[in-house]
Amino acid sequence: MADLTNSGIDPAMARRNRRVALAGLFVAAGMVGLAYASVPLYQLFCQLTGFGGTTQIAGDSPKGAIARQMTVRFDSNVANDLAWTVTPAASITDRIGMVDTVNYIATNNSDKPITGMAVFNVSPDKAGAYFNKIECFCFTEQTLQPGETVDMPIVFFIDPELADNHELATVGEITLSYTFYASDNEGS
Fold first, then answer.
1. How far apart are CA 174 and CA 91, in angstroms?
2. Given the DSSP bridges, would you call strands 84-87 and 114-123 parallel, antiparallel or unpaired?
3. Rounded Cα–Cα distance for residues 144 and 141 (Å)
4. 71-95: burial string, b at 16+ Cβ within 10 Å, e else
5. How far apart are alpha carbons 135 and 172 in whole angstroms?
6. Pairing mode, if any, of strands 173-182 and 92-95?
7. How many other CB atoms are there within 10 angstroms of residue 110's CB atom?
8. Could you give the 3-state DSSP secondary structure of residue 71?
9. What is the pLDDT of residues 67-118, one digit of tens each?
10. pTM higher than 0.85
11. Tally of CB atoms within 10 A around 24
């Protein structure tokens, strides 16, 4: 290490400058790390809280059904880079807590196999915490062969605790919406 005593630079100041530079470097590295972790952390937060209309994943409907009924509408959107046609399931009305199964229908309109994924949300947003999926095509990637048409099932229920949420007392309809897009693994 160079002798700073004769160079006119205060050794204590040089040490402070090095500490500040290292602290800045660690802060910058931490910010880059958080930037990479933000998407999975946000997704985990949404899944745990139902924030932004994110649905819950359940093994079954442990609480049973209540008398209040709810209509569930289904919607689909397909990204421009995915050569699929997706028809959403027909709306259903059932008692809250009942387990229901519906099917989206997807067709690969291309002449090659295509792998796609779906992201979903529920509206109104506050209802997402009560919308539970037992089984869903959206849990994994789907590969459709050229011209293939498939049924893509969803098994779900609405948690009866929704009835205890005064903000949702007047809600009679929930919309489950999927956006389909080509998988990042496409062509690999």
1. 10
2. unpaired
3. 10
4. ebebbbebeeebbbebebbeeeeeb
5. 24
6. unpaired
7. 14
8. strand
9. 999 999 999 999 999 999 999 999 999 999 999 999 999 999 999 999 999 9
10. no
11. 10
